[in-house]
Amino acid sequence: MTRLLLRILMMVMITFLDACDNSTSTIKPDKETLSYQPVAPQPSQTPRTYKQSTYSGVFQKPGELEPAVDFWRKTYTSWYRSQVAIHDDRYLEVIYEVMTIPGDVAESLTTEQKELVKNRRDFWRSYLVSLETKVRTNAPLTTLDRQIIDKFRLTGKPISHAIQGAPERIRSQRGTRERFIRGVEISHRYEKQFKKIFHDHGLPEDLAYLPHVESSFQPSAKSSAGAVGMWQFTKSAAKTFMPAGDRVDQRLDPMASATGAAKYLSHAYKKLGDWPAAITSYNHGIGGMKRAQNQVGRNFVDIVDNYDGPAFGFASRNYYAQFLAAREIANNPSLYLR
Prior knowledge:
Lysozyme; 2 domains; two-stranded antiparallel ribbon
């Protein structure tokens, strides 16, 4: 009897020990186990989805462009020439600060004022180098770090992706509210005639607002690239779209150059097939936009996001968004320029 009881007790103990070996551990992992380990993103196997497009008049306004359109609305209507936005040149919703230049600020900045702006750009560039490292190494963040990261969340991109390269994307943009208001005042002299020119060419009349982007309706405007006049034609483009021999430079004639712009945009639309590309070609050229379409495809959002042509920089990427913003403001100046 005693031997039988001992055998039963031994069998129970063996069963209990086996159960303990197979049970799930409840020991908490150490801090190293809990630390974040970045994982390289895997290539997406699903087609890209796009935000819903709306329309600004007859012009398509992709949802992805709204941050850029809003940025240019602020530039034209909210920020004065004494104010400078320090921002990311790819993600225009990421604005680090809007600084105010002290003292009198004219149309052109003085050497000292330019130095002030440069110092702020340098400050943010240095700061972003540190923040980029913190995000990559999962280091502790300050309150300012979290505020800046929240700005990058607005992009809808993974934080590690959006912040990568941010120090190299620092840019400054002066406000142009005074200049835009003056442009609206000047445009009243020409708007009706410009719209008729575009209407007579079978084009959207609101293309008449393009000089807000090109020259702020300054008839004698000149660019560093040699473009002249309210519609900013180069000599070669003028010879093609408003030939008049060598006797007179019609680029300084607002009506003649508006007619030339109508001919150009009609030609560009036929070649490129949509208004975002055709309008952008006014800055980047028809050939340049054709190369962009051939390399990236016809979707304009993909061109803005992914085309890496050597001359397709900040101005070209943003040209259509600038036009959309200028068109909206010029159509309702009492709303935006109160």
